[in-house]
Amino acid sequence: MADDAGSNSKRLAARPQPLPVEYQNVGSDERLPGFLSEMTVAGAMLEPARGGTLELGARLRIFVRPLGIDDEFALRSVVRWERRTGSGVQFFKLGEREVHMLMELIAAAEAVARTSGPTRRTA
User: Using the 8-state DSSP alphabet, how is residue 93 labeled?
Assistant: First the structure.
């Protein structure tokens, strides 16, 4: 028996909102605004707020300040792939605190997305 939405439509799970961050190229003092999305403890997608893409192989520091925490975390990363909207970064040399913080951020973002419901419907 078909569901109420019809047999040709699917519901997509809600996606977590991108996390505002700052990032900098290693060796530079300039911090640039951006957003992290598709986060895992291994990496994420970094979307520069000013558009454009990052150079493949570029080493970055991504600065994250979780809500309710005074500390700022600096995540070491390297650009591994590109998309039109941003670049995939792989995290490396993460300490226990950084891994725990990432796991907490991912869990919180997924919980908010679940309570928000599906983001769209396709036919």
Answer: S
- pTM, rounded to two decimals: 0.79
106: containing domain: 24-111
> Of 55, 51, 49, whose CA–CA distance to 89 is shortest?
55
Q: Report the SS3 class of residue 68.
A: coil
Query: Is 68 within a domain?
Result: yes
CA dihedral 67→100→61→19, nearest 10 degrees, is -40
Calculate the average pLDDT of the chain.
84
Residue given tokens 């226990």 in the structure block: 96
Say if 123 falls within a structural domain. no
Calpha distance 115→86 (Å, rounded): 27
Strand 19-25 with 73-82, pairing: unpaired
Residue ranges with strand state E in 26-95: 32-37, 43-48, 59-64, 73-82, 87-91
Amino acid of residue 19:
L
